[in-house]
Structures are given as C-alpha cells and as structure tokens.
Write a structure and sequence with these properties.
Helix content: 40-55%
Radius of gyration: 12 Å
Number of helices: 3
Number of strands: 2
Largest sheet: 2 strands, antiparallel
Strand order of the largest sheet: 1-2
Structural class: alpha+beta
Distance between the termini: 8 Å
C-alpha cells in the first residue's frame, strides 16, 4: 500500500488497523501490513468492510468517492504486491 493511501485511510477511519496488525513496515515508500494469524486478518477484513459501509456508501447499492478509493486500496492490498 502506498504512503498516501495509508494516510487517506487514517483520515477516513483512524481505528481501521487498530488491534489487527502485528507490524507495519515501510519499504520503498510502501506500507506492508503483517498480521499475527488468519483470525486477525479476518477481523481486519470485517473492520475494513464495515468502514466502507459506514464512510463510503451513498446507499446500500452505490459507493461514494471515498468508498471507491477505499475499495481500490483494498484490492491493491490483497491482490497486488
């Protein structure tokens, strides 16, 4: 995850990573998140999706700009290096 994406998430929902991340390392201007185990990742995933619902949706069917950016960041965290 890029530094500006991390800062954006901290502005939108400061507690999004709280209690789920064992370690965050910065490597070449990218943030790498390290989870203790799968259960902590699962809790983070639920927390992240709840943040998208709370901060990033116009209604139950459509994302606003914040939600679209949060979804793009999530996809990059999970599916990209």
């Amino acid at each position: 995850m890029k530094k500006d994406d991390y800062q954006f998430l901290m502005e939108v929902s400061p507690t999004i990573f709280e209690g789920f991340i064992q370690d965050i390392k910065v490597e070449e201007d990218k943030f790498r998140l390290y989870f203790e185990n799968y259960a902590s990742y699962d809790k983070f995933d639920t927390n992240y999706n709840c943040a998208i619902v709370h901060f990033g949706m116009i209604n139950q069917d459509f994302l606003n700009e914040t939600g679209e950016r949060m979804q793009r960041i999530y996809d990059l965290m999970i599916y990209a290096d």
